[in-house]
Write a structure and sequence with these properties.
mainly alpha; membrane
Amino acid sequence: FQGIVITPLLLLLFLGSSSSVPFTSIFSQLFMTVVVPLIIGQIVRRYIKDWLERKKPPFGAISSCVLLMIIYTTFCDTFANPNIDLDKFSLIIIVFIIFSVQMSFMFLTFLFSTRNNSTFTPADTVAIVFCSTHKSLTLGIPMLKIVFAGYEHLSLISVPLLIYHPAQILLGSLLVPTIKSWMVSRQKALKLTRQPKAPVKV
């Protein structure tokens, strides 16, 4: 939500000219593309929540298929563009940078949520590590297409996001066993420290 407001403001700040940055147009398009569907979904959910809980439609599978289709079509649009001008070595460097950035974000959020004066539980830490570093194509690609509409190198700009999204899925899958074992052991340790000590009989 902050990105919807901050992105046009940053463009306005760095480009320094209101004529070259259609702030109103960008903001209204982002609002209609991202916020309005979310609001409509929340309103509709209130009225069909009971029906959904009874029928239990396969929204998880539908969501995964839609996300896969978005990734596939975006990859096709990106690498089918003859003006992308991206050699293999540069692509490898970008992949390395993206993985490094993702790991750094996850490590920093882990340190932040597990510091000594932190009130976060182990489960909170897991949520923070995975959710705060998440970047989604379903939001990122529409934002890029709206903000950089008509820009000939749009495909090149979308490459880091195209790599970041699969990278977070891959890293998440690899880290789940380690994070899970850490969370379970940490929760057990906290339970032991919180248990009242039995009185000593003299």
